[in-house]
Design goal:
The chain has 8 helices and 10 strands. The chain is α/β, with parallel strands linked by helices. It has a 5-stranded parallel beta sheet with strand order 2-1-3-4-5, sandwiched between helices.
């Protein structure tokens, strides 16, 4: 079985403190360690940049042990440079504070600045520094994965919104309302595209229900949408708007899996097509009369 190897960057101006940290890590774990050392903050930052340039496909180090006070800068300055405007540095950072450790305010500030943890030189043991190192590496991995997932979700939502809004036909998404026992079912409008808001009476529909927007025929609409929601089988039907002289073909389909309570409805204005069909039928009738 292979042994884990950790690449550690020690940034501390004290040779004795660096030696102590190395010895504690070696005693506290069966893992192997590759140590890179720096006495100044600027030297440590350059070591990180060198690793990033040499191997951009991986973390520059598995963890950085950073002294709180350095001759050229303090831990806050180093963390700011490492994060470079991001909320996370390029790899986990554990701040090694003074002999008596950091107080609560200092520790909270370091964590907000991007550090994964902090330890005090006076109360650090081989077991505690090893545990802190491993926990910080695992926490950083989780935060990195969550950040990547969040970015992917944001990109996916942006693509969805762009596609949703670019559809020429009216499109709405409704969600089944959880009503009390014995109360009639209903659906609420939760999303619409710009074209949908131009349909008759649908300018301000978000948050309202089918019963509110279609008071004259809610049961038929709710039955159709409820069936689509329950079975996942799409339904196509037509509805006319006599006041506007328009005819729509509607396609209703479930959004999501079997547990979803959302239904999307696409409104396709087929008024011209229906008028053309009626004209054709009228011409056929005229020709039939002439033939007789």
């Amino acid at each position: 079985m292979s042994t884990t190897t950790y690449r550690i960057l020690l940034i501390d101006d004290s040779p004795d403190d660096r030696a102590d940290l190395r010895q504690m890590l070696l005693r506290g774990s069966d893992a192997r360690f590759e140590f890179t050392q720096a006495e100044l903050g600027c030297t440590g930052l350059q070591a990180v940049r060198d690793q990033q340039a040499a191997r951009p496909d991986r973390l520059p180090f598995d963890c950085i042990l950073l002294d709180f006070h350095l001759p050229d800068m303090d831990a806050d300055d180093v963390l700011t440079a490492l994060c470079n405007g991001s909320d996370l540095p390029p790899c986990p950072v554990v701040v090694v504070t003074g002999w008596h450790g950091a107080d609560h305010d200092d520790g909270a500030r370091l964590l907000r600045a991007g550090a994964q943890d902090y330890i005090g030189k006076g109360w650090t043991t081989a077991e505690s520094v090893t545990r802190t190192l491993q926990n910080s590496i695992e926490r950083f991995d989780l935060l990195t994965r969550r950040k990547a997932a969040t970015l992917a979700l944001q990109e996916s939502e942006a693509r969805y919104r762009k596609l949703f809004n670019s559809i020429d036909d009216g499109l709405c998404v409704i969600e089944k309302v959880q009503t009390a026992a014995g109360q009639p079912a209903d659906f609420r409008y939760v999303d619409v595209n710009p074209t949908f808001t131009t349909l008759p009476g649908m300018a301000s529909v978000l948050g309202k229900t089918l019963r509110q927007m279609l008071p004259s025929q809610p049961e038929e609409w709710i039955a159709i949408c409820d069936g689509v929601c329950a079975t996942g089988v799409p339904v196509r039907f037509e509805r006319s708007c006599p006041a506007e002289g328009r005819v729509f073909e509607l396609n209703a389909f479930r959004v999501g899996g079997a547990e979803s309570h959302k239904v999307a409805i696409i409104y396709d204005d087929i008024t011209e097509r229906r008028q053309s069909e009626l004209q054709t039928l009228e011409q056929v009738k005229v020709l039939a009369d002439l033939d007789r």
